Amino acid sequence: MTYVKYKSSSLFFLLLFFCLSFTGCGNVENSEDKIPQAALGVLDLRDWNFQGKGLIPLEGEWAFVWEQLLSPQKMRASDAAHYAFVPDKWYNYFIDGENPDSQGFATFSLTLILPGKEQYYGFSFDGVGSAYTLWMNGQLLLKSGTVGTSKEQMVPNKIPQSAFFKSSGEPLELVLHISNFHHKKGGFRNSLYVGLPNQIQSFQRNAWTLEAFTLGILFIMGLYHLSVFVFRKKFRSALYFALLCFAFFMRLGITNQDLLLLAFPFVSWTLAFYLDYITLFFIPPLVALFYRSLYPEDIPRVFLHIFCALSGLFSLYIILAGTYLASFSIQYYQVLILLEIGYYLYFLIRINYKKREGAMVITIASIILFITSSIEILSLWDWLGADKIGVYGFLSFILVQSILLSLRYSQSFARVESLTKALKSTNRYLQESEIRYRNFFENSIDILFLTDEESRIIDVSPSSEKMLGFSRADVLHRKVTDLFSSVVYDTLYEELCQSGEPVRNSEVVLRHRDGHKIEALVTLALRFDDQGNPAGLQGSVHDNTDKKRADREKMRILELEQIALTDPLTKAYNRRFFSEVAKKELTRAQRKGSSFSLVILDIDFFKNVNDQYGHLIGDEVLINLTHLCHEYIRSTDILARFGGEEFVILFPDSPGIETLKRVELLRENVSRSVIAHKDGEEIRISISLGISSWNPGQESNLKELLDQADQALYQAKESGRNKALLFGEDLLSDLS
In sequence order, what are the residues at sequence separation of 6 or more whose Cβ sits closer than 8 angstroms to the Cβ of residue 728? Predict the structure, then answer.
């Protein structure tokens, strides 16, 4: 007996070490690899070796506008933008002298610069717990729920997602809309990761695999102990242990990688919220019931009544209060959990002092559970950084308690009987899964189909008639190429065979029975028989016509907006847009006490260029000059064409002397550059520039600043051209 106790204790200490390692306590990032962070809304990853260092979180200072949902263009022009650290909660920010409320909506933006070569990348995002949409360069990449400006408009959701894109090294403009009216923790709460496609897929796959593995253990252990109770009802400890397994199974499946929500998409965010909280509320009473079933003399019945009453009251409160108010209750209940853990420690000391059977075993298992649960609670309070580990502590608890319960049950029934009953339960689960699959197949909006090895359709969902006008009987035994082009099918099939991975969301054009076109997305995957041999294909067809039509309309609207804001020849901003932005910038500078400058640029002797080389070459000179200007100004500076050969540039947060240095570099580069060619002849130009600046305390309006810049330009031309002059006291005396 002594040897058995010694061997068991050694095993449990090994399990403790394994649990702490499994939960990621040793997962510390290499301090030698400094991870870049965003600064002032820009994250430069050109020097980041994705191949060697892996994916990276887009953390740091994002541009942030509170209580506005802005488009990318409006975000650039907004004078209400702040910079906020991501990830964090809204109520930790400090805006205009106060902290934002947890309820509200906001726009985040980040300019992301990736390495210069053409390369595919991907984003992975766990979401924010409420609702968000993510655009890149104006294109929608990720969406979870429905972002709204009120509780009635938004629909919360949280599902981990990923998206892939191709980058040529040009700066990428990310814009993220977030709204929250349903939870006390609003904000950009989780990191957005970027990496190579295989890294993103591996990152997501590893997270799902770990969670699926854990869910499988919890579910199977729950089924096993529930079956033990069904056949041996006097063993109530098995029932309580099974309910604990299912409670942790439910919490993990809807709070981490959300595998249960992915498997059951009809479960709303609100229902998942209530399931999460209610399961948490009933875990402590179940632990107490489990302990008392093992040691009925050491836990008073009144203790159970208090636990159950508190759990019931908290559950009733969250149902009546709604999700937002209910989210505040969790912290109070976590305090109760910590107090209950203190009582449990007293209980463990007591059963060890009395040398109860299996006391050492259950003590070690319980301490592991209590430590990980306490760490998770403190992490949720932002005191530590290792949340979501309580369920993994419960895994070690399961392993230890399973040994303890097995010792208690081994003399009551034979091993063969327990395995047979567990197998029956598993078969019943598989049958239910088959029924769910068939219901999903029959009621799917998309067309789901199976083919044999010769690409003949052997099964198809009834939705084929609604989408294509062909009934199930019309489609069965026809080849897939009868539905869409054989060339497209052959290409997809070749790609599928080469990679072995499913081909997802490939765009195809189908024909309805009445002849009209249907733009669709096709997904294909190989199908295998029981021996692992290829048996055909399985796939789906999604009607994408409405989305494509909406995308085209959106692009048309964006093009019209762009035309209204820009000069049609040079694509620089036009005078009207510049005036609007300059007025806002002047207002912002006056409010914040910052400087900014205006520059008027004019091409020297431009009429000679038109007369000598023609207006087409003149247009080419204007276009190429615009490109050169963009190379020498910042992304926050505004270049506009005022008319003819005259341009104006707005330099926010730039004093006059600093602006003079910038435009001097531009002027010198223009004078050195070949601006155009005509019949092999190199055409060169020079420019003159006049600069005016606004400084805090100065009494000037936009018209006066433009007049001053124009006077400086006039003086630059009068003094020989190819000059940049700053309007000031010396210049004023010269002009007088």
Answer: 656
Spatial separation of the C-alpha atoms in residues 77 and 586, rounded to whole Å: 13
Q: What is the largest CA-CA distance in the chain?
A: 111
**Host H or E run for residue 372:** helix 359-380
In whole angstroms, give the CA distance from residue 724 to residue 705.
16
Residues 6+ apart with CB under 8 A from 495: 503
Place of tokens 């989305």: 547
**What are the residues whose beta carbons fall under 8 Å from the beta carbon of 545, sequence distance 6 or more?**
517, 518, 519, 520
Beta bridge mates, 121 = 165
Supply the DSSP symbol for 99. P
Contact by Cβ (8 Å): 621, 633: no
Strands 724-726 and 687-694: parallel
pLDDT in tens, 308-348: 888 888 888 888 888 888 888 877 888 888 888 888 888 88
Q: For residue 616, what are its two tokens?
A: 């087409």
Helices 269-294 and 301-321 cross at an angle (nearest 10°) of 180
Confidence of residue 383 (pLDDT cuts 50, 70, 90): low
Give the whole-angstrom CA distance, residue 2 versus residue 591: 79
Q: Are 186 and 131 in contact (CB under 8 A)?
A: no
User: Considering the chain, what percentage of its residues have pLDDT values greater than 90?
Assistant: 15
The helix (H) or strand (E) run that includes residue 695 is: none
Distance CA 268, CA 481 (A): 38
**Phi-psi label, residue 477: left if phi above 0, alpha if psi -120 to 50, beta otherwise:** left
Please give the Cα distance from 439 to 447 (Å, whole number): 14
Q: How far apart are CA 48 and CA 195, in angstroms?
A: 10
Report pLDDT for 540.
Answer: 80
SS3 (DSSP) at 328: coil
Residues ≥6 apart with Cβ < 8 Å to 525: 496, 502, 503, 537, 538, 539
Q: How far apart are CA 337 and CA 362, in angstroms?
A: 19
Cα four-point dihedral sign 135, 137, 138, 139? negative
Per residue, the 3-state secondary structure of 156-196, as one string, reads CCCCCEEEEEEECCCCEEEEEEEEECCCCCCCCCCCEEEEC
CB 544, CB 520: distance < 8 Å? yes
Residues β-bridged to residue 676: 683
pTM of the predicted structure, to 2 decimals: 0.49
Q: DSSP state, 674?
A: -
Are residues 373 and 287 in contact, defined by beta-carbon separation less than 8 angstroms?
no
The residue length of the chain stands at: 736
Do β-strands 681-683 and 676-678 pair in parallel, antiparallel, or remain unpaired?
antiparallel
3-state secondary structure of 589: helix
What pLDDT was estimated at residue 309?
87
Do residues 377 and 334 make contact, with C-beta atoms less than 8 angstroms apart?
Answer: yes
From the number of C-beta atoms within 10 Å of its C-beta (0-12, 13-18, 19+), residue 439 rates as exposed
H or E stretch covering 212: helix 197-231
Give the residue ranges of DSSP H helices in 604-655: 606-613, 615-632
Please report which helix (H) or strand (E) contains residue 528, including its range.
strand 517-528
User: Mind listing the pLDDT tens digit for each residue in 189-219?
Assistant: 888 999 999 998 888 888 888 888 888 888 8
Separation of alpha carbons 147 and 154, rounded Å: 5
Q: Give the pLDDT score at 26.
A: 37
Residue 24 CA to chain centroid, in angstroms?
A: 22
Cα distances (angstroms) measured from residue 374 to each of 235, 348, 350, 369, 378:
30, 17, 21, 8, 6
The pLDDT, as a whole number, for residue 570 is 83
What's the CA gap between 106 and 178, in Å, rounded?
6
Rounded average pLDDT over 377-405: 67
pLDDT in the model for residue 225? 84
Is-contact 521 542, C-beta < 8 A?
Answer: yes
Between CA 642 and CA 645 the distance in angstroms is 8
Which segments of 560-683 are extended strands (E)?
Answer: 596-603, 638-643, 646-652, 676-678, 681-683
